[in-house]
Every structure is written in C-alpha cells, then in structure tokens.
Design brief:
By secondary structure, this protein is of the alpha/beta class. The protein folds into three domains: 44 residues, lambda repressor-like DNA-binding domains (434 Repressor (Amino-terminal Domain)), CATH 1.10.260; 128 residues, Rossmann fold (3-Layer(aba) Sandwich), CATH 3.40.50.2300; 149 residues, 3-Layer(aba) Sandwich (Rossmann fold). The protein has a seven-stranded mixed beta sheet with strand order 7-6-8-9-10-12-13, sandwiched between helices. A six-stranded parallel beta sheet has the order 2-1-3-4-5-11, with helices on both faces. Strand 8, helix 11 and strand 9 form a beta-alpha-beta unit.
Length: 342
C-alpha cells in the first residue's frame, strides 16, 4: 500500500490537517511549513485517495475531455488549450477518445468514471438530444461543437454558417466562378457538414454564382485521404472547379496533394481554402488559407461554463455561446502575396 496522509504528517512533523491544506493548495500555509510537507510528500511518493476526497465533498481536481479522434490535429491542438488553461482552475485534464461511436459517447456521458472526475467536456459526433435528456449521471458537463446545439446543457461552438460564408466569399472575391465544396455528408442531417454546406450555398447566392450540385463532393471522414479522393473526382468532371472550399484543413491538404500530382498549380489553376487553422497549414506548400476558430476562446468558455456548473449545480441555467473566428489568407488562395488575416 502507498503512504497515507498520516505517514506524511509524521515525517514532516506537522498535523494531518496541515498536510491536507498543502495537498489541496490552501493558501494560508507558511512557506517553511509548505516546503517541509512537499519534501515529505515527494520522499513518500504520496498519492491522494481521489474517491475519498470526492466523498468528503472536496472534489478530485480532475476533469475529463472526450474528443472523437486524438490523432486529428484540430482536436490535439484544442486539447492542448484545455490542458494549459485548466491549470488556472487547479484542474488536471484526462483525455478520452470516442472515435465518434455512439456507444463510446454514451459511456462517457453516463458517467462510468463519475467517481474520478469533477466535470466533463465532450465533443460528440453521434449523441442525440434524447441521449442527453436520458442521462442518469449528474457529473457537470459542457458540450462542444454543433451536433447537439440547443440541447439542455452548457454548450460552446463556432458560427459555422458565417465561417463557411467568409471562406467562399473570399474565393469569389478572387474572381473564381466554379467554386467546389468538399465535405458534405448527405446522410447526416445536423452538425458541422450541414452548416458549412449551407454557408457555402448562401455565399454562392450572395456572389450571384450558380450552385452546381456536381461541385459538391461528399466525404465520409474528414481526413487527408478523403480530401485527396474528392479532389480526384472533381478534377474528372467535364467542367472542373477553379476553387475549392474544404470543410476542414486536413481535407484541404489532401486536395492540394492531388492537385499538384495532377499538374495543377495552386492557386493559379485552382485556389484552395480550408477550415480549422491547423499549425500544419502554415508549413504546407503552398501554405494554406483557412478559417481560424479561436481555439483558446473555445477552451476558456467551456472551462468557465464547467466551473459555474460545478459551483452552482443543476440550478444554473444552460449557457450557449459561439467562439470567434477569423479568415486567414495564405498562398493557397493569394499566391506568394498571401499571409494576412481578417
């Protein structure tokens, strides 16, 4: 068995209460006493009993973040923001991967690990509003993304309609008239794909450009290979596009690879813009124009909502807010003159 809090107190020559104050980062402990306790904690390799602490009403200091795919750079970059900013609340973030599976997402929100965590932040792909309403677990929770907009729970998203419109309006402002879209998911009624497709169509109407259904390419997943395959199909059209709005940066990078392999110049022959502002896009050839969600603001909003929910409990009214975004213009649409944001 590991060392107990009593063992730490005896080694440091202080009371059990003093050790508890240090472990829980209570501010009114003298630097000298704190240093003695910290030394004893390290020597004994003390690990707090999280379950016992929760039962005493003190919380565990742990929250969980569940995302569909950790290997997708957008979620990795977003998770990094959560890990960094959660420290301001004294929280450690546990990260789980659901693969967008309904079963996995249900397991997460129904509280299999409820005795270990103080709160939960979830980016769902498969859950329904009914799944949330039937939720039995009372662990405070915040949702990310569009899948469950207006569900009875705290929610942080971005304005995908406005972001898509900005991307397509930028392409139209360059004089492009055959603007394609990569990323539609016709069998999914809600979520990111539906909103970005709607924004794409709205921007075409505003630019007085025709909507050609042949220029809308579906994508089952939002990976590089999906963008590459969709771009192949678009280039095989009798009248191929002169610009492409990809519903995320990974598909845009895949599309650029296909264009270059087919002898097309980017952006001279086909301009390409993505969505997400991945760090990878700053180092691609050409660098990638994109719609940049404010990932830091997403994390800040979600953490503040979660803190309020933990403090106020079920009595708090659900909050819903969109984080900001900006248009980042780089070489894939503006050539060597690119590299600006608005």
């Amino acid at each position: 068995m590991g060392a107990s809090i009593k063992d730490v107190a005896e080694l440091a020559g202080v009371s059990v209460k003093t050790v508890s104050n240090v472990v829980n980062d209570y501010q009114f402990v003298s630097p000298v006493t704190r240093a003695k306790v910290q030394k004893a904690l390290e020597e004994l390799d003390y690990r707090p009993n999280l379950s016992a602490r929760r039962l005493r009403g003190g919380g565990t200091g742990l929250i969980a973040l569940a995302v569909p795919e950790i290997r997708v750079p957008y979620f990795a970059e977003l998770a990094a923001q959560f890990v960094r900013l959660a420290k301001e609340y004294g929280w450690t973030v546990l990260i789980d991967e659901t693969q967008g599976s309904l079963e996995s997402e249900r397991l997460v929100v129904e509280g299999i690990k409820a005795h270990l965590i103080d709160g939960l932040i979830v980016s769902p792909l498969a859950l329904s509003a009914g799944d949330i309403e039937r939720r039995r677990d009372s662990t405070p929770m915040v949702l990310l993304g569009e899948r469950l907009a207006h569900a009875p729970v705290d929610h942080v998203s971005i304005d995908n309609l406005a972001g898509a419109r900005a991307a397509v309006a930028h392409l139209a402002s360059l004089g492009r008239t055959r603007i394609a879209a990569i990323g539609s998911q016709p069998h999914i009624s809600g979520g990111t794909a539906a909103l970005r497709l709607k924004g794409y169509r709205q921007a075409l109407r505003r630019a007085k450009l025709p909507h050609d259904p042949a220029l809308v390419a579906p994508a089952a997943r939002y990976h590089r290979v999906d963008g590459a395959k969709a771009m192949q199909a678009l280039l095989d059209l009798d009248d191929p596009p002169d610009a492409v709005f990809c519903f995320n940066d990974l598909m845009a990078l895949g599309a650029i690879r296909t264009l270059l392999a087919r002898g097309c110049r980017v952006p001279h022959d086909v301009a390409v813009i993505g969505f997400d502002d991945l760090e990878e896009g700053q180092f691609s050839t050409p660098t990638l124009s994109t719609v940049a969600p404010d990932k830091e603001q997403i994390a800040k909003l979600a953490l503040s909502f979660l803190k309020r929910r933990i403090t106020d409990g079920a009595a708090a009214q659900p909050q819903e807010e969109n984080a900001d975004f900006r248009l980042v213009v780089r070489e894939s649409t503006a050539g060597s003159a690119g590299s600006s944001s608005s």
